[in-house]
Each structure stands twice: as structure tokens, then as C-alpha cells.
Design brief:
mainly beta; 9-stranded antiparallel beta sheet; single chain
């Protein structure tokens, strides 16, 4: 297992964990000011749980719920 931190071209900082070269656990993106842009969860590269994105003022703008690697809900509505 290894942790990583990357800085995107827009100045946002991405942190997460790799296991055997695959994303595993939470991936967090922070705006340049340190506020959280998004939190997403993966199990060996497969999206799981609820992924949330916030705007720069801290308002949640998008939530996507994943089950078995597939999106099943967007902003609380089934898809």
C-alpha cells in the first residue's frame, strides 16, 4: 500500500492510496485554498459508496451513490 499526492494544473491537490497499483480507499481533492472539492471511494479501482462534490463555497453540488461499481443514484434520485 502506498499513499499518493498529486497537484492538478488547476492547483487542486489529490490524495489517495494505491494497493497493487490500484486505487483503494478514499480519494480526496482539495481546492487550492484547502477546502474540499470532492471525496470519492474505491475498492481496487471500483467506485463504491457515496461520492460527493462541493463547490468552492462548500455547498454540495453532486452526490453519486455506487453499488457493485455502478452508479445507482445521483443527487438522491435513482438512475
Amino acid at each position: 500500500m502506498s499513499s499518493y499526492t498529486l497537484t492538478r494544473s488547476d492547483g487542486c491537490v489529490v490524495t489517495g492510496t494505491l494497493v497493487d497499483g490500484k486505487v483503494d480507499g478514499a480519494v480526496t481533492v482539495k481546492y487550492p485554498d484547502g477546502n474540499t472539492e470532492s471525496v470519492k471511494y474505491y475498492s481496487m479501482n471500483v467506485p463504491v459508496g457515496v461520492h460527493t462534490t462541493w463547490d468552492e463555497s462548500g455547498t454540495a453540488t453532486l452526490t453519486v451513490k455506487y453499488e457493485d461499481g455502478k452508479a445507482v443514484e445521483v443527487n438522491g434520485k435513482p438512475i
